[in-house]
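Take a look at this chain, tokens included, and explain the fold to me:
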Amino acid sequence: MQPQDVAPRPTPTSGPVVDVEQAEAALVEHYPRLVRLAYLVLPPGLGRTRRVLTAHALAQRALPHGRAAASVIPAQATGCDGDPGYSFVRLRVVRTALEAGAPLRRAAWPKRSQLPPLLPQVWGLKLFPRSGGADELALDQRLSALSGPARAAYVLRGLEKLPDDEVRKVLAAAGVTDPASAVRQAKKVRAQDALLDSPEFDPCSLQARPTDLMRRRRHAKATLAAAAAVAVCGALLALPGGGWGADDAAAPSNAMNPAAQVALDPARLTTVPPAAWKTSARTDFSVWPARGALTRDRALLRRALTAWARPGDSVRVSMTPGTPSGAPPGPPRLLYAGQVDTTRVVVFYDGLRIVRYAEPKDGSRGAALDFARVDGAGGAETDAVVLDRADGNVRYLTAPWVTGAVERDLRKPTAGTMDLRLTGGVTAPLASPAQQTGSCSSWNVLQLTGGSGTRLLTDLGELVPAHLTVGRPGAPGEVSGATALRAWAPLACSMAVVRSQGVRSVNAWEYARQALPDAAGDASWVCTRADTWRGDGAQVQAQFHTPGGASGAVAAQAEDVPACGAKDPHVLAGVLWKSAKGDWYLLAAGAEDTKSIRATGGVNGSAEARLLTVRAKQGAEARLKGTLKDGRTIGALR
């Protein structure tokens, strides 16, 4: 599921005043429509039964507690034109449905709409709308691929018949940070307004089935066994002498663990000599020396270690996906302690994680603790660590073998580079793409030399920058040289979708070139794969780049698939393309080991080669099937 782009609730604006009676009348009169609206906006990942119950709960909770200002957006073509009561409850339904689909945040209490509804409740039955046809199923799948705001935009356009500008107003009032982007995403899905009124999406006309009867029986037996175990344990705890006796292997709960105490002692921090990396067989964080002007500041180091072991309420803790945040298992290695801009920063390495502690240098309250998983890192993956981000810029601490650093705009491969001064291994600040918003006109990366040639790293919002490579999976090369830089230029901005996902490396592989109809030149097919430190969650995109285009068009994308990776260096993707003469074509391409391609469905055609060009109609949908040279078949990336 895509991340939800929902902002904090905005301050109400002035509008018609709605009292409880007026809102209740609108709610009762249009209850089925409001429940259908909530059901369509809620994420399908909730499951149909919970989605039905949650939709009813959100509609029922839309009733205000007192008088309130209604939305200025009128109801359109729903039989309730100009009714401020309906506009008000509709806005509350949309807002809470978007909140229900937002991801739970570690440092914040979940909102009421994000929890299973207390009312209504149904025991022993599964409830779900009546099944529709293939068209309804296909629409539901397309809606599930949208973000929550985009799904809400689609429903407001199709079910409520609101114009685009009023859809944007409703979304903004509901707390969506970028309503225009949500509307653009919604417009990419083929409009099928009639299907939104089908029984498939009617949570008021339901079918009932029993829950898993055998599982219920097993759960009943397990509950009885658990109750008996609780009774026995209670009796044992009531015995004299502490219940279980005095021969437990564990120490009392208030005992101090000696190993944990050693790990919190600044005097026990491990370091290596400055030149250890020159003679070591390893090229990773274990041979980084301790750097910075505050490596002997015992008070600072103790605060950092204590915050790591027991972060208080004033410490903001973040971690990349799949990274444990527990205390150090033993004395960690000190990599850096110093002042960066207005912050004191300490960086540790414990063999599994990079941990950064940062506090204001003026001694004011508030600190940050960041964790990044780096197990198995080596080579370019250990070239740099983020020290600080401020004012849209980022500073790195580089490896001891780095001899030079420059800043390069990946979008402009011929624009040259800008030198970055290295002071004690710390770079001068450079623009960070992790913090840029709006249009993507540039994508600045860090280019390092020394050790094993030239490497490119990019900041994706985490402690360890992602390593950029180019070439066939299994044997990619560094992004150095004019050809490699030109290959990455139209792809740079596509990395925005993998920010803060724990990305380890991103590889770009041009797997095919295809001659365009009407002598329009050659297009390139490129597969980008973003692999993560945790192993799962890889993001794969097949991009189609036409001559002269500034950016590639994403033809297909998938998550957690082996395509375009070392284990399965195969890919197949297609796109509808319009020629300068106004003719539409289905273009498809596979990797070099693809023997043939066949298209069925809305477009029919085949080719005994790895490239396919077939005339098509605008909006046509086709299914692609490829046959590899070893006889295996593959489907299109999705």
Residues 247 and 622 are 70 Å apart (CA to CA). Confidence is low (pLDDT under 50) at residues 1-14, 69-79, 241-248. The two ends are 14 Å apart (CA to CA). The first helix runs from residue 20 to 29.
